[in-house]
Amino acid sequence: LQQQANEEALNKLNAPLILHIATHGFFLQEEVAAPPTSDEMRIGEIVGTEIENKFSGVKIENPLLRSGIALSGANLHKDEKEEGIFTALKTTGVNLWGTKVVVLSACNTAVGEVKTGDGIYGLRRALVLAGSETQLMSLWPVSDKGTKELMIDYYSRLQKDEGRSDALRNVQLELLKNRKLGRTHPFYWASFIQSGEWANLKGIR
């Protein structure tokens, strides 16, 4: 939480059972100059479109440097260091071998660059390289309140031994049919996708 949600905390992780990160996510197109500097990050700003519009001209060859998440310190500027900007490339160095589920509760975390024959280069690929079994990520900007409701139900279903893929699907179906919640529009329930292992947390399919 807050200042404790920093790069150091992520780098010290040692294969947690579940890793849940709720923050801002970003993906910069190929023509964008560089990952956002800490100067460009401000509290309350959605990382994504605003950042993409601020940079142009310099090509970044490695797509793993163009996607990432914002952590504590991203809105501060200290000694010209990019503190708080945790790129997909940095994510590959986190120890997630044995981690059952990584949830990136943020905008655009499943977005990346498609490489023919190699798949998608972004946070999803980075989390697989880091060792995580399952990744739950978003394809577009998400609603804070709607996402909170989705996540509460998702974890409740995991505790009831539903499969990791089935739990997400059932949550989405529930949101789709429950008009009282006001979350029937795909914007609220369709953004999150699951990749990797689909069994429940005990490995039962």
Task: Give a structural overview.
This protein has 205 residues and is an alpha/beta fold. The chain contains seven helices and nine strands, in the order αββαββαβββαβαααβ. The protein has helices at residues 7-11, 49-54, 88-91, 123-130, 144-159, 164-177, 186-189, and strands spanning 18-22, 24-27, 67-70, 85-87, 101-105, 112-115, 119-122, 134-138, 192-196. A four-stranded mixed sheet has the order 1-5-8-9, sandwiched between helices. Strands 2-3-4 form a three-stranded antiparallel sheet. The protein has a two-stranded antiparallel ribbon with strand order 6-7. Strand 6 (112-115) and strand 7 (119-122) form a beta hairpin. Helix 5 crosses helix 6. The longest helix is centred in the last third of the chain and has 16 residues, at 144-159. The protein is globular and about 45 Å long. The two termini are 34 Å apart. The model is unreliable at 41-51 (pLDDT under 50).
